[in-house]
């Protein structure tokens, strides 16, 4: 019996672990093929590819990012293969799925499918989690025994993945479920945490020593749910090649001191990325969504990790109860102040199956009827407030998370404590939305000068922005329209670099950019050398040097 397991991933690098678990748990009579696609693929073309295999059964994994496309895809598949049996599963259909039965599928498998999918293929009776036209299982969410999964072939090291190993994430789970109950989150519906044995996890990690994998992402909702075990696994990771990068989702305020010590004193910061969901710093908001969070400890731990050089990605959600514009601004500015590597601003999505759905009307929440079910209004945030959040999101991505203006922005708000980063990002985002696309890099920086000028004055804004711009424009971007030094002055500085500092003349004339910047609380001249193949280097001229060099 030919069975095709398939899905639409968001990106090629996102390898689907759920399908691989189905693959390794397959039944002997099934001839199984795993075919992954991405949301950008042409549905007709990929349906033809599947149809060529003449499958009897197709299993599709459905997520929030592919749900709408999957509905269309199912219709195409049924047109090309009228007799094919389609079984679907995945988080998007595990909580509310009745309307999917109208799409032409045979059944939905709610919950974990490693056993139930194959029972459905065999048309067994009374399958946990199954919903079809003739049967709705009383078990709302199927679970499998992780001990049994450990006896199967490893889904992480399949021969079919060998070739692309270096170009895709290795997704790895050491546990399933989450011990927390955040009302807006699907994982809270599965709050019985089950752990793969530590020995199994280490066995899955060990082959990394000789594989080409570059990125490992742990899928655990909370990597540090068992602190001592998490620390032991992290210690093992440190024995693996330093070229591999590891990503964890952690609950930062519960990271133990022992684990923090390890990350501060022993581990290599270049190898780890922490994803830290904060969502809000408003205690009343957190309480209303059943989220226990010690904000003070969270900020302390995050600051310590950041200071040590770890990449920390922080998440905020707008649209939660009791969070009005002022409160969200405070949450944003509070996180901005710890200088996160990335700050992601999202708007609440009301997901089927979460406790939030029932509470939403009482909080005046309105949301889109289709995926991704984004909130459009709450009792505390108007549509205009949420449109402003979109602007903040855009500016944060382009100016801060991209790294392009990070140093400038962080220093401005560290030195001008009365200013609001949120307000600036809202303005910058609105202007970014209005820029014709695609825009040049220099337009981004000029836009930042415009919004900073009313706050700190023109010359300070120009010098601060130029500090980031010259470092980013290593490949000799066009200068900003604010040059403060004449061609003659720059020529003098170049001449001095060669004569006084023994720089290579060719390199100085071909690869230096010279202009004002912001250093040690004031405007100074910066010289940036961007010689191809070498790290970009910056030299600041002291006031005396400036006078001496330019005069001489
Ligand atoms: S938001 Fe995070 S901590 Fe809360 S239930 Fe979801 S996965 Fe667990």
From TrEMBL:
RNA-binding listed as a keyword: no
A Pfam family the protein falls into: Radical_SAM
Record flagged with keyword Cell membrane: no
CDD domains, per the entry: Radical_SAM, radical_SAM_B12_BD
Domain Radical SAM core: 164-382
One of the record's GO molecular function terms: cobalamin binding
Protein name as it appears in the record: Radical SAM protein
Species name: Holdemania filiformis
